[in-house]
Amino acid sequence: MPSQLPPEDAERIEAEVLAVLDRLIDGCERLDMDLAFGIFDRSDTFRMVAGDGTVCSFADYYTNNIAYLETCAAFEIETIRTDVLVLRHDLAILTWSYRVEATLTSGARDIIDRAGATFVFELQDGQWKVVRYHESSGLVERRRA
After folding, report:
1. Is the Cβ–Cβ distance between 135 and 116 less than 8 Å?
2. Which CATH fold would you assign to the domain 7-143?
3. Long-range CB contacts (within 8 A, 24+) of 19-28
4. How far is the C-alpha of 139 from the C-alpha of 8, rounded, in Å?
5. Which residue of 23, 49, 90, 131 could cross-link 123, Cys pair, CB 3.0 to 4.6 Å?
């Protein structure tokens, strides 16, 4: 279901959504959780679905990620591919495949060679927010220090 928007509007929306993803990546790599998680809708309607089918609210998603990221000394993300589908002037879907390497405060490293995520973005009060999010990945390889 491609957008019926003029191409220049769809291209602008795509660029805006990709800029939001850049904020998530930048926040994670800086270990700045306010920046990283500021892209998500914090209302009761937000849902995150994990690769195992677990569904959680923003509060649970945030708590789980904060607990892990507090154990990190460094966090690196490499984007493999992105694709944006603009549905309407206020709704877009972003698919993202990526690689992650986290260095823990213990010196160990967690590596995920390939992961994928799907974000549903909604324009809220002039800002793109993630209202639905699905994430899946291969197994985490932990390399000892």
Report:
1. yes
2. Nuclear Transport Factor 2; Chain: A, (3.10.450)
3. 20/121, 20/128, 20/130, 21/82, 21/94, 21/96, 21/119, 25/77, 25/79, 28/69, 28/75, 28/77
4. 40
5. 90
Burial of 24 (0-12, 13-18, 19+ CB in 10 A): buried
Q: Give every residue of the chain whose pLDDT is below 50, as ranges.
A: none
* Radius of gyration for the chain, computed over Cα atoms and rounded to the nearest angstrom: 16
Give, in degrees to the nearest 5, the angle at Cα 122 between 93 and 59: 100
DSSP 139: P
Q: What pLDDT digit, counting tens, does each position of 117-128 carry?
A: 999 999 999 999
Q: List the domain boundaries for the chain.
A: 7-143
| Single-letter amino acid code for the residue at 69 | L
Instruction: Kindly provide the residue ranges of all beta strands, DSSP E only, lying in the chain, ordered along the sequence.
Output: 47-50, 55-56, 72-88, 91-104, 109-124, 127-137, 141-143
What the block records as the tokens of 49 is 């679905």
